[in-house]
Every structure is written in C-alpha cells, then in structure tokens.
Design brief:
alpha+beta, 2,3-Dihydroxybiphenyl 1,2-Dioxygenase, domain 1, 8 strands, 17% helix
Length: 115
C-alpha cells in the first residue's frame, strides 16, 4: 500500500470565503461537489486543502483525507490492527472508494482511493 497524498479537511460554513482567502496564497479550486471543495497549488498539485460543513454521505465529518493506492488493503491493515472503523468501505458516486478510521488522538481519517 502506498500513500499518494494527505489533505486536511477544514470544517467551515464559509467555503466561498475560504476559496477567496486561500486564493490570495495561490490556491485554485480543483473540486467542488457543493458540500466539499478542494483547493490545490497549481505549481505543486499534491498541496491541497478541503473545506466542508459536513460530509454528505457519512455519519461524521473527517478531519483529514489520506489517498492510498489500495483502499481494501488499507482497510484490512487498520481492521486487523484493532483500529476503530468509523465508516466501513464504500464506493461513492463521485468515483472514490473510502472508509473512515479514528486515530489515537480522536481525529477521523478518511482513507480513500480513486477508482
């Protein structure tokens, strides 16, 4: 299993204002599903930050996202390691497979891969 990127997920009701603010630092909108928006640096596309008020299809809003090359392998490692699975693996309509796991500090991690 390989980690491809890590993206902080910021809970915010001010998504549009956040886009404008971080745009001043050079970030550009690369994804917007209406309930989650991701900004990235054009010169370093893996440098990203997402904003959302709440996750539309899950029971909790994740604190960060970790993209991996094999979601099912990551799930097996976490489950077998005794980690708390907050949201089981699921294929989402926007083209990702994901699950949520709680880290030792209580943060919810969205582990995902693009299909």
């Amino acid at each position: 299993m390989t980690v491809r990127r890590v993206v902080p997920n910021v809970r915010s009701e001010a998504v549009r204002e956040s886009r404008d603010f971080y745009g001043l630092l050079g970030f550009e909108e690369v994804m917007n599903h209406g309930w989650i928006m991701t900004l990235a640096s054009p010169s370093a596309p893996a440098a990203q930050i997402s904003f959302m008020a709440a996750d539309r299809t899950a029971p909790v809003t994740p604190d960060l996202s970790v993209e991996v090359d094999d979601v099912d392998a990551a799930y097996a490692v976490m489950r077998d390691g005794g980690a708390e699975i907050v949201f089981p693996p699921r294929d989402e309509e926007w083209g990702v497979r994901r699950f949520f796991v709680r880290d030792p500090g209580g943060r919810v991690v969205n582990v995902l891969g693009h299909r």
